[in-house]
């Protein structure tokens, strides 16, 4: 999966965990287009509220200002993963097996970039998605983004 630089992930993870939250993942987008957006997803067993996001945002901002891992201007956004939770790590795909997902790849697989179906698990380095009765194996390193599709 495409992800933010390791140094940035390590800095953010340390601060998020220090406050007692789980770092679900982060996205760094829009670099070189007049500024970037750093989106940080956090979670907690008791859920996430606005006050939690504000607290984590202040903590992360201070450290990022000192360490300066993002050399250009950026905006920081902290939020819960939401109902359409993004999946970043191999463990996320294992944890949410049996749920409906939407996966976008940065390289065409079987002539397309998008797959929507039921997450059937992970085998070695592949995410298994069942779509219309057909099982697709998608290499984790080819995944650009993946999200749960909530049953509403």
From TrEMBL:
Keywords carried by this UniProt record: Cytoplasm, Ribosome biogenesis
Q: Which Gene3D superfamilies match?
A: Ribosome maturation factor RimP, C-terminal domain (2.30.30.180), RimP-like superfamily, N-terminal (3.30.300.70)
Listed GO biological process terms? ribosomal small subunit assembly; translation
A Pfam entry, by short name: DUF150_C
UniProt GO cellular component terms: cytosol
Q: Which InterPro entries match?
A: Ribosome_maturation_RimP (IPR003728), RimP_C (IPR028998), RimP_C_sf (IPR036847), RimP_N (IPR028989), RimP_N_sf (IPR035956)
Where is it located? Cytoplasm
The UniProt entry's sequence similarity note says: Belongs to the RimP family.
Return the PANTHER family for the record: RIBOSOME MATURATION FACTOR RIMP
Protein purpose = Required for maturation of 30S ribosomal subunits.
Name of the protein in question: Ribosome maturation factor RimP
Q: Which gene encodes it?
A: rimP
């Amino acid at each position: 999966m495409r992800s933010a630089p390791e140094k940035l992930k390590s800095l953010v993870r340390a601060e998020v965990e220090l406050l007692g939250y789980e770092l679900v993942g982060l996205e760094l987008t829009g670099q070189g287009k007049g500024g970037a957006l750093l989106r940080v997803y956090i979670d907690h067993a008791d859920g996430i509220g606005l006050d939690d996001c504000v607290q984590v945002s202040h903590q992360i901002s201070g450290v990022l200002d000192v360490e300066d891992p993002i050399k250009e201007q950026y905006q920081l956004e902290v939020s819960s993963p939401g109902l359409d939770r993004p999946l970043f790590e191999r463990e996320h795909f294992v944890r949410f097996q049996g749920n409906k997902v939407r996966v976008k790849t940065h390289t065409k697989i079987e002539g397309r970039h998008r797959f929507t179906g039921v997450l059937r698990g992970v085998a070695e380095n592949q995410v298994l998605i069942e779509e219309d009765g057909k099982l697709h194996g998608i290499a984790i390193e080819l995944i650009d983004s993946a999200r749960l599709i909530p049953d509403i």
